[in-house]
Amino acid sequence: MARSLYICYFGVREPLVQTQVIPYLREIIKDGHRMSLLTFEPSTLTKDEQGQIRGDLRQQGIEWHHLKYHKRFSAIATAWDIFQGARFIRKFISRKKPDILHGRVHVPTLMAAIARKFSRHKPKILFDIRGFMPEEYTDAGIWPENGSLYRGAKRVERWLLKEADGFVVLTERAREILFPESAESGYDKNGRPVEVIPCCVDLSRFASANEDTRREIRRQLAIGDRYVMAYVGAFGGWYLTEQTADLFGALKKLRPDAYAMILTQSKPEMIEPLIKTRGYGQGDYLITKVPPSQIANYLKAADSAVSFIKNCYSKQASSPTKNAEYLASGLPVIANSGIGDTNLHIRGGRVGTLVDGFSSEDLANAVGEILAMTDTDERCRRFAKGYFDLVNVGGNRYRRIYQQLLQA
Questions:
Q1: Which long-range contacts (CB under 8 A, 24 or more apart) does 181-187 make?
Q2: What number is the average pLDDT over the span 252-261?
Q3: 317: part of which helix (H) or strand (E)?
Q4: Residue 347: C-alpha distances to residues 57, 146, 236, 354, 365 (Å)
Q5: DSSP symbol at 73
Q6: Is residue 156 predicted with pLDDT exceeding 90?
Q7: C-alpha distances in angstroms, 88 versus 51, 82, 83, 93, 112?
Q8: What is the set of domains in the chain, with CATH numbers?
Q9: Are 174 and 147 in contact (CB under 8 A)?
Q10: Could you tell me the pTM of the whole model?
């Protein structure tokens, strides 16, 4: 029976780990794989909390390990975490003899590559690239463009691309940039497997939200039959707050009964003053944070959704989870063009509308198009099943690349 270690530079209780990492691990286990998970915890866990988490994961077939995440003095802290992670993984390799080290993005994969370098046993390394990490940091303004940190990260990335035995990217566009030769064969020029696995969602979670759910949420919010547009996720950085507020404003002009449902972990003051100045009074909006388990219920009460993300080089590799959640809920999406495979999805699947700019005319036209769409619920759900299904897309593709690595 094969064994793998999945390395994630997040805490186990982070929403991303709960909704993305752990569900994927459950899918990989279906092939009889023994799975271990290493996380980096930003806060101290009590023994009771550790026991609860370890027990819950053990019931799902996952062996959990964790190290402390350090934040202060960012670059130095990350270097220390890389050292600690590599040391732990080297010991894990010595004890457990894993077949695969699965690194989620650059930092965990670097830990895996360093650990393997100093180990007798040589497990395969799966570089789950996800996004263009060095470019993400410069596009977000965190690192200076072409500065020392960016150049250092690119050197590390080149080494990891050389050392890894297989790769996962989120979009076809990212595959075209990094591994163009793999589009037909599924392998790079050195014969290593490449899979495109977008951010998938558990469709059963969204299917469980029905018309009764819709009526109950609408009753709780006292919105009756009003037209509801939803937004899920953070604001700031890559996420275009001002433009999102402008879209809500364009909707209000065309549909005076419009209601804005904003489910965000960001501070309400980042968006609330903006939508108030665009015609939304008390009783016209909801701004709240809800647990991942409740997202499907709230989205069921909406009629459409918005996803505006900064169009920059790094976002060609982006697969917004919110888009998968919207479509799984049957909601047509207003999105901006140039983000990952969004153009292909929205236009090809007829599951929403795209904007190329954010002028008043652009936004008004997009709102008009989305309001004119009919019979979208089933079409959006079918599209989500074909492209974002955790089981039949994400799970199948992860199991396939694991088998390819094991057989290599």
A1: none
A2: 98
A3: none
A4: 40, 35, 27, 8, 15
A5: S
A6: yes
A7: 20, 10, 9, 9, 10
A8: 3-200+389-407 (3.40.50.2000), 203-387 (3.40.50.2000)
A9: no
A10: 0.93
